[in-house]
Design goal:
The protein is of the alpha+beta class and 381 residues long. The chain contains 11 helices and 17 strands.
C-alpha cells in the first residue's frame, strides 16, 4: 500500500496547537490568540484575572474562567453543537480564542476636546470651560465586554478599545460636568475647590452609563477646570465677583452712596464751567451751586433710606444750625461749611452742639470759626 499521500491529506495537522494560553500584557484589555487551528485534546490555560471565550463566525460560544482545561466535546458544548465535533477524535477544527484581561488599566488621560459652554450658577454669565484629568478602566462583565467589541468594532487593538470607551466618557462628561457645576451652585471661578467631590460623583454616574459595556470606571479624577483668562465673558465674571465681594463687605446701601459720590466727583473733574462750579462744593464733600445738587442728592438718599444709612462715628460732633428761624439738625463741620460757601450762613449764624450751654454765633465756636476764613474764588467776570 502506498502511504505517500497520507500527510498531504491532513496538512493542517502540521500547524495544530497543543496549548492555548496568553500571558497578560500590562494595560492590554483583550487579546486574540494568534491561531485558530485547534484540535480535540488541546490544552487551554486561563490565568487568574482572565476569562477565555471561543468565538465562531462572530458569535461568542463557550466561556472559561481561570483554570486549565483539556478540550473535548463536553466542555465546549456550544461550539460542538455548531461544528458537530467527533468525540474523542484528534480531528482539527477552527475557532478563535479570545482572552479578556480583568485587571485594571490605570492612569488613562482624558480631556474635553472643545470648551463646554456653562452658565455660572452664581453670576449667570456663560463661560467656556475645559477640564482635564485621568481615570482607570476594568472589565467587570467579560461577556458584555466581548459582545460590545464584536458588535461595534472592526479592529481590536488595545488603543482602539481605549478610544472606544474614552469617546463615550468624554461624551457623557459634557453633560455630567455641567450638571455638577450647576448642582453645587458654586461659581466657576471657585470650582477647583470641589474637584474631589465632583470626581467621586461623576465616577459613580459614569459607571451607571458604561455598565452596559461590561466595564467599570475606577479612580476617575478631575485634575483641573480651566477657562481662558482673557475671554470677555471671564472678565465679566471676575468683575461680577469683585462687585459681589465689595457689596458683601460694605453693604449694598453704602455702595450705592459711594457710587453716587463717585459720579459727582467725576462731574466735578470735568473741564468747563459746570465742572468748576461742581468742584466748589465737592471740595467740602457736599457741593454748592451745581454742587448743591450733591447735597440734595445725598440728602434725598438719606431721607428715603434713614434706617439704612450707617451711623457716623461717635467722635464726629454734630451741630444744629438756625436758618430762617428753623433748626437744621445733625450737621457736620463740612455740612456747615456748605451753608457758609453758598451764603446761607455767616459769622453771626447761631449754632449749637451737645455740651454747649447756649446757642452761639459761628464766629464764637472755635471748631467752626476757621471756616469763615476759608478762601473762596472771586465772582465770575
Amino acid at each position: 500500500m502506498d502511504y505517500g499521500h497520507e500527510l498531504p491529506l491532513y496538512p493542517s495537522l502540521m500547524a495544530i496547537i497543543d496549548v492555548v494560553k496568553y500571558q497578560t500584557v500590562d494595560g492590554e484589555l483583550v487579546h486574540r490568540f494568534d491561531s485558530d487551528d485547534l484540535r480535540m485534546g488541546t490544552q487551554l490555560v486561563v490565568h487568574p484575572a482572565q476569562t477565555a471565550f471561543f468565538v465562531k463566525g462572530g458569535a461568542i460560544c463557550d466561556e472559561f474562567s481561570a483554570g486549565t482545561y483539556k478540550l473535548d466535546t463536553e466542555n465546549i458544548p456550544i461550539l460542538n453543537k455548531i461544528l458537530n465535533l467527533p468525540y474523542g477524535s484528534d480531528s482539527p477544527f477552527q475557532a478563535e480564542v479570545w482572552f479578556v484581561n480583568q485587571t485594571a488599566k490605570l492612569n488613562l488621560p482624558w480631556g474635553t476636546p472643545h470648551p463646554i459652554q456653562i452658565e455660572d450658577p452664581r453670576y449667570h454669565i456663560i463661560v467656556p470651560v475645559r477640564a482635564h484629568g485621568q481615570y482607570g478602566i476594568r472589565v467587570t462583565n467579560p461577556r458584555a465586554f466581548m459582545e460590545t467589541l464584536i458588535g461595534s468594532m472592526g479592529t481590536f487593538s488595545s488603543d482602539h478599545i481605549e478610544q472606544f470607551y474614552k469617546g463615550r466618557i468624554i461624551s457623557a462628561l459634557n453633560t455630567l460636568l455641567a450638571q455638577q457645576i450647576v448642582n453645587n451652585g458654586i461659581s466657576i471661578l471657585d470650582i477647583n475647590t470641589l474637584l474631589l467631590t465632583m470626581s467621586d460623583s461623576i465616577n459613580e454616574q459614569l459607571n451607571e452609563l458604561l455598565g452596559k459595556y461590561g466595564v467599570s470606571i475606577i479612580e476617575f479624577a478631575i485634575m483641573s477646570v480651566t477657562f481662558p483668562r482673557d475671554d470677555e465673558s471671564v472678565i465679566k465674571l471676575k468683575n461680577a465677583k469683585d462687585l459681589a465681594a465689595r457689596l458683601n463687605i460694605t453693604g449694598r446701601d453704602v455702595y450705592q452712596m459711594e457710587r453716587s459720590f463717585n459720579v459727582l466727583d467725576a462731574a466735578a473733574n470735568n473741564d468747563g464751567v459746570g465742572g468748576q462750579m461742581m468742584g466748589m462744593g465737592v471740595g467740602f464733600g457736599a457741593g454748592m451751586g451745581i454742587g448743591s445738587a450733591v447735597g440734595n442728592l445725598a440728602g434725598q438718599y438719606m431721607n428715603t433710606n434713614p434706617a439704612q444709612v450707617p451711623p457716623l462715628p461717635q467722635s464726629v460732633p454734630l451741630y444744629y444750625i438756625a436758618i430762617n428761624g428753623q433748626q437744621v439738625p445733625n450737621l457736620t463741620v463740612e455740612g456747615i461749611a456748605t451753608y457758609i460757601v453758598n451764603g446761607t450762613a455767616n459769622a453771626s449764624t447761631l449754632v449749637w452742639t451737645p455740651g454747649m450751654p447756649n446757642w452761639l454765633p459761628i464766629a464764637q465756636v472755635p471748631a467752626l470759626a476757621s471756616l469763615l476764613n476759608s478762601p473762596t474764588p472771586p465772582p465770575l467776570p
